[in-house]
Amino acid sequence: MSSARNTHVSTARIPNTAPEPEPDETGPREECGVFGVWAPGEDVAKMSYYGLYALQHRGQEAAGIAVSDGKRMVVFKDLGLVSQVFDEQTLSSLRGHLAIGHCRYSTTGATTWENAQPTFRTTATGSGLALGHNGNLVNTAELREDVAKLENRNRSGLRATTDSDLVGELLAAGAADLGVFEAALRLLPRLRGAFSLAFADETTLFAARDPQGVRPLVLGRLERGWVVASETAALDIVGASFVREVEPGELIAIDADGIRSERFAAPEPKGCVFEYVYLARPDTQIAGRSVYDTRVEIGRRLAEEHPVDADLVIPVPESGTPAAIGYAQGSGIPYGQGLVKNAYVGRTFIQPSQTIRQLGIRLKLNPLRTVIRGKRLVVVDDSIVRGNTQRALVRMLREAGALEVHVRIASPPVRWPCFYGIDFASRAELIANGADSEGVRRSIGSDSLGYVSVEQMVAASEQPRSRLCCACFDGNYPIPLPDEAKLGKHLLEDIPPAEQARTAPAPEPGPLAVGYGAGEALSRP
Q1: Using one digit for the tens of pLDDT, what is the confidence trace for 391-405?
Q2: Fold entry, domain 292-343+352-478+511-523
Q3: Which residues are catalytic?
Q4: What pTM did the predictor assign?
Q5: Tell me: the pLDDT tens digits for 102-157?
Q6: Cα dist from 211 to 195, 265, 267, 438, whole Å
Q7: Which residues sit in the known binding site for Mg(2+)?
Q8: Check: CATH 3.65.10.10 for 32-269?
Q9: How far apart, in whole angstroms, are the C-alpha atoms of residue 12 and residue 116?
Q10: Residues of the chain with CATH 3.60.20.10
Q11: Annotated binding site
């Protein structure tokens, strides 16, 4: 596999830290989005930009694009949203026929510029290697030891602290002797956890998915090339036709000679059911099933499991909307819009003042008083994690004149942290871990509370239970976990557990007290 020595990395010149999330952002956090394109004659940088735009919901902390023209690779990345990181001038400078794009939410490593992706390495032969990762590995401590054994390793002057960076380091080390494809075939079976990868050298686009296929990854066809992406919605936005999913345990390579594929492990499908519930865009398809249709069906089944006498069904926009439509269909109760969402409030570098901060959820949602006054409401949301959002929402609706507020949740109680790429919380912070449904109802102040059952949620996905990971609901982790000392978001930063936790409550005795990135949640205003 040919490679050029004329490899170059371009870096953005802005701050190395990002602001804390808005205080009311207490729900589950998406993981990351990856996008790759091989298309001679196309503007692959802009194509990647729009692909990442379609995947922005999967990560809002940082974004980056690596582009190769066959001779050198240029990487541009920074903290912020895709629209904040890239402008017309930057994109026009990224010329080539091959690109890797990434938008990040951190599950391993802090929110710093160094940890933004794609990661980049120069191999001993001078070839460049860029990599984007969606997911989270559980044998990161083991991989760190492998990296420590490498001699004369070139870390390009960066000090990233992510599992993705370790993968890039080990892949670059192996590629010097074997080429990228063979190095990947040897390295990928050693990775444990969730990984959907898009990576590239100067000439070839690669894609790989863990044997369990925890996170989605799809292959699309352009008139003059190929695309890989985290979701089918990203194919749609760039005009690519869906070909198939990258199979669990599969490695794909795309270059001037065409596309080739090889299995690096036997498939053991365990797709994340929470992709259907919340993470993926509603206009995406996973395993042949429409995410939107799944959410509507969950709502119908929720209405059967938890009926109530009410006047109006309203969603918590936007993620609760399809399930609310389904609940209205299943119950016969009219559907309406009772909450207006400010579409422009999200992660931002402009921090609200203390006065505005105290308004909390009103920054994002405002009640339509004329719609909800005097009504018995069914409020449909996608999940309850800590309960902060629902508590504030119920209070706001009552203040706006609702007679009754019945909360219905389109997922089962979240009782266990995720170690495969979703930032929920530590187990001690999960409200359903320390209280039954009645306790949660009292905590959020609603008149009633109902969750869809695991069985009905799975049935709505039209996937066999055996092919899904429901660990955050049932505690059955399909990929074995190491000791807690070898888990955690800041594992590679050597931050003491006490510092990670800050003011978080002490975890209860027993396994899996740690979580990813949520230790500071209770210290936020």
Answers
A1: 999 999 999 999 999
A2: Rossmann fold (3.40.50)
A3: 32
A4: 0.86
A5: 998 765 556 677 888 999 999 888 899 999 999 999 998 899 899 888 865 554 44
A6: 9, 6, 5, 39
A7: 319, 381-382
A8: no
A9: 11
A10: 32-269
A11: 272, 319, 381-382, 418, 469, 472
